[in-house]
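User: Quick sanity check before I run a bigger batch. Here is a single chain. Can you write out its predicted 3D structure?
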Amino acid sequence: MRPDLLCKKIITALLGCQPKEENKMSETAKYDVAIIGGGIGGLMAAYRLKQKNPSVKIVITERGNTLENRHCPAGKNSACVHCKTCSITSGYAGAGAFSDGKFNLGTAYGGTLGEELGDDRANFYINEVDNVLNKYCTSGIPKVYKSNEALKLKCLQNNLRLLDMNVKHLGTDNNYLTMQNLINALFKEGVNMLAFYDCEKVEKTDGGYVLHYKNGEKIEAEKIIIATGRGGANFVSDFCRSFGVHMRSNYVDIGVRVEMKDIIWKEFSDQIYEPKILYKTKTFEDRCRMFCFNKGGLVSAENNKGIITANGHSFAEADKKTDNCNFAILSSIRFTEPFDQPTEYAESISRLANMIGKGGVLVQRFGDLVRGRRTNDHRLGQNTVVPTLKATAGDISLALPHRILTNIIETIYALDRVAPGTANDDTLLYGCESKYYSIRPEFMNDSFELIDGVYIVGDGSGICRGLSQSGAMGIYVADCMLDK
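Assistant: Done. Predicted structure follows.
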C-alpha cells in the first residue's frame, strides 16, 4: 500500500471512522447536520445540539489535522517550512487552538455579536461558552482579569482609548487541553469527526444538501453549519456566489507584530492582562489598534495559503514564559466602491514581505526603521530584545505602504506615552500581520441563516473576531436550529 494511503487509513481509524477501500468510493454518508470546520464555533454548535437533542446525527469535517496530531515542524527557533496545510491555522480547535487562550467576557471587542443580537442576549451566550470552558478545563479555574478605571484614565489623558473588560486567561497550554477535552466529549456523544476533509462545494438536493470534498468523498446532510473561520473566506464567498447570497465588504487590518521586554507593559498586563488600545492617527486620522497581547510570550509564524504572516501566543505555565511580550499593531482600512478585493490587497502586501524575507517573516528594529535603514544580522545580534521567532532581518518599509507605515510609527510613539520604552530602538517589528474581514454575507434572518437550512458562525461570518463570540455564535445558531 502506498504510504500516503496507509497514513490516511491510520488517521481515519484514530478518528473512529471506517477506513475506505483503496480506489473505491464509499456510499454517501447521511447526517442531520454537517458542520464545516472544527474550530470553537463548530465545536460549540455540536455541543449544544447534542446537549439538547442527543439523537441528532452530526458530522464535523475539518480540512486540517486532529488536534493531538497538529504540530508545527518549525519549532521555536526555526523558520516556517511552508507545510501544505498549516498546523497553526488549520485543524481541530481551529486557529485558536494554539492561541493565548484569552476569552473576552463581554461584547466591547472581539466582534459585533452584541450589535446583531443585543448586548443582553449576546452576553448570555458568551456566558454559556464560559460555562462549557469551566466544565472541560481540568487544570483549575483560570484567572479572570478585571476592568481597571485607572488605566482607562491614563490612556484617555494621552489620546488613547483602552477597550477594557473582564478577560479569562487559559494560556496556550491550558486552552489546548480544554479544547481536547471538549473534542473527546463530543466523540463519546457520537459526533463523527473527520480530518483532512476540505469541502470544495455544496450542492442542493430535494432532501437537503450534498457536500463535495477534495478527497473525492461526499456527505449528505439535511442542514449545514459553515464554521470555516477566516481561513475559509474563499469557500464562503464561493458558496455565496453559487447560491446568490449578497455579500458586502467589511475591512482589513494590516500591520506588524511588536516584541519588547515584558517589563515595559507590566503595569497593564499585571492588572488587566490584555491591553486593547485604539488610537486615531494625526496624519491621516485612521484607526489603529493594539491587541492580541501576549505576556511572556512568543512570536509565531502562520502559513495562510502559502503566505507566511506573524502572530503570537503565550503559555500559562511560568517555566514556559519568556522575558518578552508581544502584541499586534494594525491599521484598519475600509475600502469604498468600486474596489471590492480587500483580502487580495492585504495578501499582496504580505506576499511582498515574504519576497523580501526570503519566503518568511521580516523582522526590523524600530530604531532602524525610523532612521530609514534595514536591520542586518549584526545589529539584530546585539539587540537587547532577543527575538523569539527566527525571521529574516530586513526593512519592513519596503513592503508596507506609506500610509500604513506612518500609522504604525505614530501609534508606537503614542503607546510610549503610557508605557515608556515601547518606542525604544531595540523594539522589534515583525511583518506582516494581517487580519481579513472582507466577507460579510447578508443573512435571511436573525438566526444567521444564509439560505434555507444553511447557517454560518464564527470569524467566517464577518461578525466575530475572537474565541468567545465565535463560540457564542455557535451555541446561538444551534438553539435557533433546534427551535425552528
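The mean pLDDT is 88.

User: Great, the batch can go ahead then.
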